[in-house]
């Protein structure tokens, strides 16, 4: 993982991450959680909500979550303890240095899972190659990433168009691809998976009800001003404090729209390791 993670770990960021479950964030993986004794690696696990959910679905198996932030690893451990999930372990580490993490070996996992990880890496192809190394023959690599360019909203708001443009510029300026969701299959092919062994699908999050808009628009209004995204906008000369205030206000206005609707599109791949 990169030390230049776009958002940092402000409470507004973790509020989004902690909302994630298997159902809403990796439904493409559900058909492959068909054995109770699977061994799963969750790369870039964040605060562990998806990871613990995976573990609960494989009660005779085990799940290992890794993340380069000790802050979120500690939160993940606490979350799993509070949920009473025993067959999950969280360790500080990243995919490029997996040999430093106890319990990770080549071809040792039935499932290697990564949710919203490749968009934050300068070398997503190398990461995909590592995923391929670690999954067993007969196992799957499951990856989901957003396509910021495909995000949409109603009613039209120039402030949200400006937010999206700014976000994409900041990410690309750091050497990341915020639109990688549309080409996950291509990255997998370049990493050595035959096209015939890749299932490519699309997932989405839609925020439309008052509660959904309060959650999504509210966290982005705060994130824009208080997370590390703010610092990267200013330090990278992508905008001023006044610009950020304008973007935050746009989110607040969208939250109040009775007919407000925001769409997040994700590319998904299941890559089968046949040999």
Automatic annotation (TrEMBL):
InterPro entries noted in UniProt: Methyltranfer_dom, SAM-dependent_MTases_sf
The domain of life for this entry's organism is Eukaryota
User: What Pfam families does this protein's entry cite?
Assistant: Methyltransf_31
The segment(s) forming the Methyltransferase domain are 35-165
Q: Which PANTHER family match?
A: TRANS-ACONITATE 2-METHYLTRANSFERASE, TRANS-ACONITATE 2-METHYLTRANSFERASE-RELATED
Kindly provide the name given to this protein in its UniProt entry.
Answer: Methyltransferase domain-containing protein
